[in-house]
Write a structure and sequence with these properties.
The structure holds 3 protein chains of 3 kinds. By secondary structure, chain A is mostly helical. Chain A has a domain of 191 residues: MetI-like (MetI-like fold, Orthogonal Bundle). Chain A has 14 helices and 2 strands; from the N terminus they run ααββαααααααααααα. In chain A, helix 4 runs antiparallel to helix 11, helix 11 runs antiparallel to helix 14 and helix 13 runs antiparallel to helix 14. Helices cover 71% and strands 0% of the residues of chain B. Chain C is built from 16 helices and 11 strands. In chain C, the strands form 2 sheets. In chain C, strands 1, 2, 3, 6, 7, 8, 9, 10 and 11 form a 9-stranded mixed beta sheet that branches. Chain C has a two-stranded antiparallel sheet with strand order 4-5. In chain C, strand 4 and strand 5 form a beta hairpin. Classes of the chains: A mainly alpha, B mainly alpha, C alpha/beta. Chains in contact: A-B, A-C, B-C. Chain B: Belongs to the binding-protein-dependent transport system permease family. Chain B: It is found in: Cell membrane. Chain B: It comes from Glycomyces artemisiae.
Chain lengths: 306, 276, 435
C-alpha cells in the first residue's frame, strides 16, 4: 500500500467515485462554449443539408433520403471507398510501426539524437506545401530518382505516379514518409515511462528486447492506442496530399480518389453541397464505427496506471 | 556483437534513412538556387552556380514583402498555441481526473466532433462567423482554439494524464489542495512533453493550414504564408517555381528551428523531473 | 425554356422558402443595391485568381481608378485558381461575395443561372459594351442577358518546338492547309528520327474540353445544344479517341503515363517545355510561359483544318458583378475602367489574354513584346468557325469529366464506345440535376 493510500485510509477520506460535477463544469467550460457556440451549429447544419439539395447559391430544398439512396448506385463513391479503405489499412500500420521503431531508436543513448530527430521530422513539416507535388514527381516520375535507383539493380521502372496501378502506393509512401507526427508523440510517451521500471528490469538482468516487450511496450500502450485511433481518423479524412499530387482530380482514372476528395469535388466543383454533406455523414459513421471498435478492443491490450 | 559495432550499425541505419528521407527536401533547396528554366531539366543535386535571384523575386513578389505574411502567420500561430495549451489541458484534466455525470458520453461527443470533414463544415461555419463580423480577421482562426475545439489535443493530453501516477495528486489532495491547484502544480508540470507536443503540432499545422485561412482571410493584407505560397501557382500563365521553392524554403526555416529547439521539452517527462 | 432567375425573383424565393435552420438564413443571394450611383463614399471589393504579377498590375490599375473616382475605395482580393473557386462559392453562399468577380467560361453560367450575377445590360449607363469584339461578347450572354464581360481572349493552338524540327532535319508544316493525316505522319517521322529520345507529339486531344469541341465542330457537331443539353455525337468522340490511341500505339505520341505526368507538370515543366516531345496543345497566350520556361524556339501552329474551320475564340476570363453587391453602379464603373480605359491598358497589358476590347488591342499593338506579338498574330491569323455555345449550368465539371474518361480509354481500362456513352450520360446527369 502506498503512503498516500495509507494516509487516506487512516483519515477516512471520501471514496474517489463521488461525482465532482462542479469542478468538472469549470474545467470544461471553454470546451462547452466551443461545442455549443462553434462546433455543434455547423455540424447540425451539415446534417440538415444532407437531407437536401443545396447548391450553395440558392436556399436548400428538402429531399428526404434521396442523397442516401443515390449513394447505393454512385460508382465513383464505391471506388473512392475502396481507395480510402486500402489507404487506411495499408498506410496506418506501416507508418505507426516505422514511427515506433525510430522513436525507440532515437529515445536515448546515441550521439546526435537531436539532429536525427529533426531530420526525420522535416518531411512532416513540408506536409501540405504546394512544393510536395513537384517533389513527388521528381522522385516517382518516369525520369525520377526512384527509377534511377532501380536502374542500378537492372530493374526497369515506370511512371509510378502516372500509372493507375501504382499511383495509390506512391501516396501511401508519401503518408509513411511523413511519420514524424506519431514519432514525436511516441517520443514524448517514452519519456513518461519512469526510469525506475528500467532500473528494476536491469537489476533482473533483462535483455534489451525483453526490456522493450515487458517494460516499454506495455507502458506505452496508451500512446500506441492514441496514435492508432487518431491516425485512422486522419487517414480516412486524408485529403491534402492526394489533392496536391493529383492536381485535385484524384487521377489517373480515379485511382487516388480519396473519399474526402470526392466529397470536396461534389460540394465545391459541382455545387452539390447537399450530397457532399450526406457523404460527410457517411464518412463520420464509418470513422465512428472504427473508433468504437478500437475503444472496445483497447480494454484487452491498453494498460493505464490508474 | 560488441557495443561499438552495434552503435555503428545503428548509425548506419539512421544515416541511410536520413538520406532517403531528405533527398526531396534537398532537391527543393537546390532548385530554389537554380534559374527557372533549369529546374525541370536537371534532376540531380549538383549546382553549377548559386542563383539567389529567386529569393529576391519571391520575397518581393507581392505588395508586401514575404516577411509580412510570415508575421501574419506568426500572430495566428501564437494565438492558436496559447489557446490550445490552456483550453485543451483544462478539458483534458476534467476527462482524465474528474468523475462527472455522463463523462463517457461527453468524451464520445468530443471525439465525434473531429470526425466530420472540414469541407462540409466550412460553409455553415463561415455563415456563423460572418454573422459575428469576424470574416477577414484572425478571430475565426484563433478564438475556437481558446474553446478547445481541437479535440485531437484534448485526447492526446487525456492519454498523458492517465499515465501520471494517481498517488501524486491524491497526496496533494490530502495536503488540502483543490483541483485548480492539483492541475496547476502537479499535472501541468508533469505533462510538459504533451504540452510541448501540442505546441509544436499546433505551430506546424497552423503554419501549413491552407483551407480555413483561404476561406477567412480575404484581404491580401491579412494573407498568411500558405496563401502567399499558393498565390505563386498559376496554371494558365505559368508558375515561377524558382520563387515558389525559394519562399517554401524560407517559410520552412522557422518551423524547423522551432522543432529543433522545442524538442528538448518533449524530453522532460517524469523520467527527468524525478517523478516518483 | 427553363425559367431564368433574376436577382429580384430570387430575393422573393429566398423570403418564401427560408431555410428552417437559422444558420442558413443567410444563404441564397439577395439584398443587393440598386443600379444607381451613391452620393456617399463607397467601398468596393474586386476578386480575381492569378499569379503575383497579375496582383501587382491589378492593384496598380485599381489605384489609377481610385484617383479618377476619389469617392470610391477598392479592395483587391486574389487567390490561386482552384482556391479562388472554393472561396467564391463560400462567400456567395454567405451572401458576402466581392462586388466584382473574375469569371471563367465553365463557371459563369453556374452562377448566373442561380441568380448570383447582374445582367450588365442594366448597367449601360456606366459600362460601355460597344467596343468589345462582337465575336466574343455573346460568350458572356445567356438568352441575351450579359452576365459576364469578356476581358481577354484565347484560342487553341499547337505549340511546336522548332529546335527539335531543325535538330532532326525536318521542315515545319504549312498550317494553313494541313490535315490530321499530315499531322500523324509528321509525328511518326519525328519519333522515328528521334530514335527513342523524343516522341513526335504530346497527346493533344481527347482529354480536354477544348480539343473535344474542336473535333466535334469539325464534323458539324457541337458539345452543347441551344437548350443547354449535351448534343455531342458519341461516334465523334470515339473517332477522336481511336485516332490518338493509334498515335500512341505507333509510338508517335506520348504514352498515357507520360500524358498524366505532363498534365501534372504544367506548361513550364511539361514534356514540350523540356524538349521530350515536339507538339503540344495550348492556348495561344500560354506561349509566353512556354518560351520562358523552355528557352527553346517555340512556335504556334493552327490545328489541322481538314478543310473545315473549327477553331473558336474563347474568352480567357470575364468580369462579373455579383447580384448581392450593394453598389452595382460603382462596380460597373470599375469594370468599365479596367476594360475600356487606355490608362488601365497601359498597366494591365495582355496579362489577362489578348484584350477583348478591339480599340484597346489596337492601342496596345506597338507595346507588345515578342511572345505577346506571336500570340496576337496567331489570333489574327487563325481561321475560326461559329462562336461556341456557352457551358450550361451544371457543366462546370465537363473538363475533369473528359479528362477522366479520356484517361480510362488511353490506359485501356474502358472501350471508347462505352466511355463515350458514359461520358455523355454523366455530363447530362449533372446538367439535369441543376434543373
Amino acid at each position: 500500500m502506498t503512503a498516500a493510500a495509507e494516509l487516506r485510509h487512516l483519515k477516512g477520506a471520501a471514496p474517489k467515485s463521488k461525482p465532482q460535477n462542479k469542478a468538472a463544469f469549470w474545467f470544461l467550460l471553454p470546451w462547452f462554449l466551443g461545442l455549443f457556440a462553434v462546433t455543434l451549429g455547423p455540424m447540425a447544419a451539415s446534417l440538415y443539408l444532407s437531407f437536401t439539395k443545396y447548391n450553395l447559391l440558392q436556399p436548400p430544398e428538402f429531399t428526404g433520403l434521396a442523397n442516401f439512396e443515390r449513394m447505393l448506385t454512385d460508382e465513383r463513391l464505391h471506388s473512392s471507398l475502396a481507395v480510402t479503405f486500402t489507404y487506411v489499412l495499408v498506410s496506418v500500420p506501416i507508418q505507426l510501426a516505422l514511427a515506433l521503431g525510430l522513436a525507440v531508436l532515437l529515445d536515448r543513448g546515441i550521439r546526435g539524437l537531436a539532429f536525427y530527430r529533426s531530420v526525420f521530422y522535416l518531411p512532416s513539416l513540408l506536409g501540405a506545401s504546394v512544393a510536395i507535388a513537384v517533389l513527388w514527381r521528381t522522385v516517382f516520375g518516369t525520369d525520377g530518382l526512384f527509377n534511377e535507383g532501380l536502374a542500378l539493380f537492372g530493374v526497369e521502372g515506370r511512371g509510378w505516379i502516372s500509372d493507375p496501378e501504382t499511383a495509390l502506393s506512391t501516396l501511401i509512401t508519401l503518408n509513411v514518409w511523413t511519420f514524424g507526427s506519431p514519432m514525436v508523440i511516441f517520443l514524448a510517451g517514452l519519456r513518461q515511462i519512469p526510469v525506475m521500471y528500467y532500473e528494476a528490469a536491469a537489476v533482473d538482468g533483462a535483455s534489451p528486447l525483453r526490456r522493450f516487450t515487458s517494460v516499454t511496450l506495455p507502458l506505452l500502450t496508451p500512446i500506441v492506442f492514441f496514435n492508432l485511433v487518431l491516425q485512422i481518423i486522419h487517414a480516412f479524412q486524408s485529403f491534402t496530399q492526394a489533392f496536391i499530387v493529383s492536381g485535385g482530380t484524384g487521377g489517373p482514372t480515379d485511382s487516388t480518389l480519396f473519399f474526402s476528395l470526392y466529397l470536396y469535388q461534389r460540394g465545391f466543383g459541382n455545387f452539390d453541397m447537399g450530397y457532399a454533406s450526406a457523404l460527410a455523414w457517411l464518412l463520420l459513421v464509418i470513422i465512428a464505427a472504427f473508433t468504437a471498435i478500437n475503444f472496445w478492443a483497447s480494454k484487452y491490450w491498453v494498460h493505464y496506471d490508474d | 556483437m560488441t557495443d561499438a559495432l552495434r552503435k555503428l550499425a545503428k548509425h548506419l541505419v539512421l544515416i541511410f534513412c536520413a538520406v532517403v528521407m531528405l533527398y526531396p527536401v534537398l532537391w527543393m533547396v537546390v532548385s530554389s538556387l537554380r534559374p527557372n528554366d533549369e529546374i525541370f531539366r536537371s534532376p540531380g543535386l549538383v549546382l553549377s552556380d548559386l542563383e539567389t535571384a529567386n529569393y529576391e523575386a519571391g520575397w518581393n513578389a507581392f505588395e508586401h514583402p514575404f516577411g509580412y505574411f510570415m508575421v501574419n502567420s506568426g500572430i495566428v500561430v501564437l494565438g492558436a498555441i496559447v489557446g490550445n495549451l490552456i483550453a485543451c489541458s483544462m478539458a483534458a484534466y476534467a476527462f482524465a481526473r474528474l468523475e462527472f455525470t455522463g463523462r463517457r458520453w461527453w468524451f464520445a461527443i468530443m471525439l465525434v466532433t473531429i470526425m466530420l470533414p472540414i469541407h462540409v463544415i466550412i460553409v455553415p461555419q463561415y455563415v456563423l462567423f460572418s454573422e459575428f463580423g469576424w470574416v477577414n480577421t484572425f478571430l475565426p482562426l484563433i478564438v475556437p482554439k481558446f474553446l478547445a475545439t481541437d479535440a485531437f489535443f484534448v485526447f492526446l493530453m487525456v492519454q498523458f494524464i492517465r499515465g501520471i501516477p494517481r498517488e501524486l495528486d491524491e497526496a496533494a489532495r490530502i495536503d488540502g489542495a483543490g483541483h485548480p491547484r492539483i492541475y496547476l502544480r502537479i499535472v501541468l508540470p508533469l505533462m510538459v512533453p504533451a504540452l510541448a507536443t501540442t505546441a509544436i503540432f499546433t505551430f506546424i499545422w497552423t503554419w501549413n493550414d491552407f483551407f480555413s485561412q483561404l476561406i477567412y482571410l480575404i484581404d491580401p493584407d491579412m494573407h498568411t504564408v500558405p496563401l502567399a505560397l499558393r498565390a505563386f501557382v498559376d496554371q494558365q500563365a505559368g508558375t515561377n517555381w524558382g520563387a515558389t521553392f525559394a519562399m517554401s524554403v524560407v517559410s520552412l526555416l522557422p518551423v524547423f528551428l522551432v522543432f529543433l529547439f522545442g524538442q528538448r521539452y518533449l524530453l522532460r517527462g517524469i523520467a527527468t523531473t524525478g517523478g516518483k | 425554356m427553363r425559367p431564368r432567375l433574376t436577382r429580384r425573383t430570387l430575393g422573393k424565393a429566398g423570403l418564401l422558402g427560408a431555410a428552417p435552420a437559422p444558420l442558413l438564413a443567410g444563404c441564397g443571394i439577395g439584398g443587393g443595391g440598386e443600379m444607381v450611383l451613391s452620393d456617399e463614399p463607397v467601398e468596393l471589393r474586386i476578386a480575381w485568381w492569378g499569379s503575383d504579377l497579375r496582383a501587382q498590375q491589378t492593384n496598380e490599375a485599381i489605384e489609377a481608378f481610385q484617383k479618377e473616382h476619389p469617392r470610391i475605395t477598392v479592395r483587391g482580393e486574389y487567390k490561386e485558381f482552384g482556391a479562388y473557386w472554393d472561396g467564391l462559392a463560400t462567400t456567395f453562399a454567405a451572401n458576402d461575395a466581392a462586388d466584382v468577380v473574375q469569371m471563367d467560361e465553365q463557371y459563369f453560367n453556374s452562377y448566373s443561372d442561380r441568380g448570383a450575377l447582374w445582367d450588365l445590360n442594366e448597367a449601360a449607363e456606366f459600362l460601355d459594351l460597344s467596343k468589345i469584339d462582337p465575336e466574343l461578347l455573346p460568350t458572356g450572354q445567356v438568352d441575351g442577358a450579359q452576365f459576364a464581360l469578356p476581358i481577354g481572349s484565347g484560342v487553341l493552338a499547337f505549340a511546336v518546338n522548332a529546335d527539335l524540327f531543325a535538330q532532326y532535319g525536318m521542315e515545319l508544316p504549312d498550317d494553313t492547309a494541313w490535315t490530321w493525316d499530315d499531322y500523324a505522319d509528321i509525328a511518326n517521322e519525328l519519333a522515328q528520327r528521334g530514335g527513342g529520345d523524343i516522341t513526335g507529339t504530346a497527346i493533344t486531344g481527347g482529354v480536354d474540353v477544348g480539343s473535344l469541341r474542336y473535333w466535334s465542330r469539325q464534323h458539324g457537331n457541337e458539345l452543347f445544344a441551344e437548350n443547354g443539353d449535351v448534343s455531342l455525337d458519341p461516334g465523334l468522340l470515339v473517332e477522336q479517341w481511336e485516332y490518338y490511341a493509334g498515335l500512341i500505339a505507333s509510338g508517335a505520341a506520348d504514352t498515357a503515363q507520360q500524358m498524366v505526368e505532363d498534365t501534372g507538370a504544367g506548361v513550364e515543366g511539361g514534356r514540350l517545355a523540356t524538349g521530350k516531345t515536339a507538339f503540344g496543345l495550348i492556348h495561344n497566350t500560354q506561349i509566353t510561359a512556354l518560351r520562358s520556361g523552355s528557352g527553346a524556339d517555340m512556335r504556334l501552329l493552327q490545328l489541322p483544318q481538314n478543310g473545315t474551320p473549327a477553331n473558336f475564340i474563347k474568352p480567357a476570363m470575364y468580369w462579373s458583378v455579383s447580384a448581392g453587391s450593394e453598389h452595382p453602379a460603382e462596380a460597373s464603373l470599375l469594370v468599365d475602367f479596367l476594360v475600356n480605359s487606355r490608362e488601365a491598358a497601359d498597366i494591365l497589358g495582355t496579362e489577362r489574354g489578348v484584350p477583348a476590347n478591339t480599340e484597346i488591342l489596337e492601342y496596345l499593338g506597338p507595346q507588345l513584346d515578342e511572345s505577346e506579338r506571336m500570340a496576337v498574330d496567331y489570333l489574327e491569323a487563325v481561321v475560326t468557325g461559329d462562336p461556341i455555345r456557352v457551358t450550361p449550368n451544371g457543366g462546370s465539371s465537363v473538363n475533369p469529366l473528359i479528362t477522366r474518361y479520356g484517361q480510362e480509354v488511353y490506359f485501356g481500362e474502358t472501350k471508347p464506345e462505352d466511355a463515350a456513352d458514359a461520358f455523355i450520360a454523366e455530363l447530362q446527369g449533372e446538367i439535369d440535376a441543376t434543373r
